[in-house]
Inverse folding.
């Protein structure tokens, strides 16, 4: 049974560059387990028209209980069946993925630092801060090209829910972070964090 040396949480607004930061600070680590918060949107038995109206940027949209359970399992060295989410139909996919705990486990998503129980399981908590104009452009590109969304719908959703939910729930979690990382021109911060991660992994002992 392999127990992770480090658990990292990365939060920040939509399009802030959280996944990029996760990849950069764990470069050189032999095994990294990425736990995207987006995979833990709650299941829904509502009709498609009603699923379209759900506020997916509100904390209530996530299955926190399942995420907590899976983090406990991973931190204790056991594999989990991670759900997948189908953004085209706004519901959890039928298939799951067997995920083994790596040397580093990274939880990444807009509200990673929202839940107190999840925060307690994280050794290092980061908040990625990026200019709002940059984030909305990235969001539009991602949703239109990768998630087959209509441009007008993406913009409408940003103005009606994404932006206000960011201000109400996401941005306040910055105070829970150990470090705020700029989403652009962050070479120095990334280099320091990468060395920190490598050092912990090399020591084989989780931070106290």
């Amino acid at each position: 049974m392999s127990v992770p040396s480090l658990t990292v949480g990365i939060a920040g607004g939509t399009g802030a560059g959280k996944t990029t930061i996760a990849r950069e600070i764990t470069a050189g680590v032999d095994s990294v387990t990425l736990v995207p918060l987006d995979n833990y949107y709650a299941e829904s038995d509502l009709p498609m028209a009603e699923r379209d109206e759900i506020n997916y940027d509100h904390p209530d949209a996530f299955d926190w209980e399942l995420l907590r359970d899976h983090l406990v399992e991973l931190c204790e060295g056991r594999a989990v069946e991670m759900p997948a989410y189908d953004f085209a139909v706004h519901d959890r996919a039928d298939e799951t993925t067997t995920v083994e705990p790596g040397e580093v486990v990274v939880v990444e998503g807009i509200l990673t630092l929202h839940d107190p129980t999840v925060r307690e399981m994280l050794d290092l908590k980061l908040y990625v801060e990026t200019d709002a104009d940059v984030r909305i452009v990235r969001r539009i590109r991602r949703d239109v090209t990768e998630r087959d969304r209509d441009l007008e719908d993406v913009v409408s959703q940003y103005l009606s829910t994404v932006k206000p939910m960011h201000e109400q729930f996401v941005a306040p979690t910055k105070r829970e972070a150990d470090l705020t990382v700029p989403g652009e021109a962050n070479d120095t911060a990334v280099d320091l964090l990468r060395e920190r991660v490598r050092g912990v992994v090399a020591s084989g002992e989780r931070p106290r």
